[in-house]
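Re: the pair you flagged

First of the two:
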Amino acid sequence: MLNGKNILLGVTGGIAAYKTATLIRLFKKSGAHVKVIMTPEAKEFITPLTLSTLAENPVISSFTDEETGLWENHVEHALWADLFVVAPATANTIAKMTQGICDNFLMATYLSAKCPVYVCPAMDLDMYKHPTTQENLKQLVKNGNRVIDAAEGELASGLVGKGRMEEPENIFAFIENDLRSGLKLYGKKVLVTAGPTHEKIDAVRFIGNNSSGKMGFELAERAAALGADVCLVAGPVKLALNDQSIRRINIESANEMHQAVMQEQADADIIVMAAAVADYTPEEAFSHKLKKKEAELSIRLKPTQDILAALGRDKKNNQLLVGFALETDNELEHAKEKLAKKNLDFIVLNSLKDVGAGFDYDTNKITIIDRDNKTEEFELKSKSEVARDILNKIISLLG
């Protein structure tokens, strides 16, 4: 969800400042870019060196660069940010934010920000409960900020109650969920399959195909970026996911994919079968390597289980099922036949006749055919853009 996002972290002078080191790690691990602004008081609780090392960016704490003496442009930093997180936010900083008091670099940047702002209060029990603080927090929300409420527990004073900054893991989860909630696939569970299957002949040989898995991985990544809870069942491919929120199940054979998909399908709102599953598998797989001999080798094959057909039979009324068809001749006819036979909501047709489409390309050219046999052709595009087109079609069917 946060992959590729620019996050500005404002650290103020509270004991909870030490927790921001963990928060930066969580942001970085998710693929976000992080810059840190510290108030002068924050430096008394944690060093700029620690935070700059973790963020992999220099810490900013004044209007002039401490090394070069050049002016730091607070507006540029504010416009750079996709979201601004103030953690910890002391009672003093919260009061300044409500009144627009611009007496440090953090406040100047906050007042220039056009992105969502998340405020994480941190102070002692009675300071937090004070009517002025509570009114200030309400005003922050009225002004369009998101307040991540303080947690209960032991405070620096030794008192126990509400006022401590929420734990970094909970702050991270709050921000992710908040960003997801406004997205078109928020709350939807999406099951995607990708890649080939390998059907073992012996210890070193297998029957497979040239599927790279790129199309399925792009679909999974984009669905997650749209707020979906994504499970990816992936065949043996050398691809990595950027979005760590995607749950990945690695399989090798068609039988393993069948088992994984059928176990996950009941909870899925949307199923996209982008994998190139083998239609046949050897009746017998040898545990040792077969030696080359003069005589011919015959391998008896048996059909694999038709996963898409099984999904079509078990499909719930509110479930959306999408299949793929890779054809070499009579493409539309065969795709429409598969669409009806497998009880799909729509099918994505690839033709091997199209240059730049099919296995192992970074591009694809598709035709989408829906239940009413309405066809929509798309030009050759990157697989990322193709994934967008497919998911736009899915979203249109969700109403």
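Second of the two:
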Amino acid sequence: MSLNGYHGSENDILIEIENRIAWITFNRPEALNAFGPAQFHRLADLLDGVSVNPDVGVVVLTGNGRAFSAGGDVREFTKKGLVDTGVYALRAMTSIRSCRKPVIAMVNGIAVGGGNELVIAADLAIAARSARLGQAGTMIGACPVLGGTNVLPLQIGEKRAKQIVFFSEKVPAEQAFEWGWVNAVVDDADLKSTTREWAERLLALHPQSLQIAKAGSNVWWNYSYDTMVNGLDMIAMGVPAESVDEGRDAFLAKRPADYSPWH
């Protein structure tokens, strides 16, 4: 699978439909389930497909291995790669919100950057006790404009969200639950069974009523959409390409980035 020069495989994201539950699994464990443009594109296509599939009533997003998703694939973060990743990520986030079926994030491990923004976009989120959630953009020359800067403040409060975004902080699942970031925290061994129970509860409810409830509850997301597009434009126009290279190289070398030339 190739997308405008970005490579991926259908195996990067798997789907299994079982008893009207679509389990969508991010399957790049060696890369902590990081996303490039090709992976976000496939996720959006899968979500758009299950949205109109009469054999699906609920969607679950999760990751294979020890991560839900580490977000954007930093290895592809040239300036162009960063912007392109954002464009395709916005399509995936929008597909979560426009999906006619409830979408549950089953947060099995670390959810950072764009991975955390997938959790923010999901209708419901259940986290394993070992999970951590947060952002990383300001460390590497990116910015979480697809949820972190606009929707997360609605979920946990403006000051808390700015702290997470400004300092690129990650918090334990229990803290995320107390703040309203996720709906529930369970022992790791109980994560899938609890998620299945929630999905089955949703399947027993009136489907059209759920669709209307979801559409109505999306009002704040819809209001935030223009700020997401504007945020991507600001990254494209306002972030020096060389600073993105420094952030990427520092991250991959596991050293502090030196942004002093751009102050």
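The chain has a mean pLDDT of 96.

-B.
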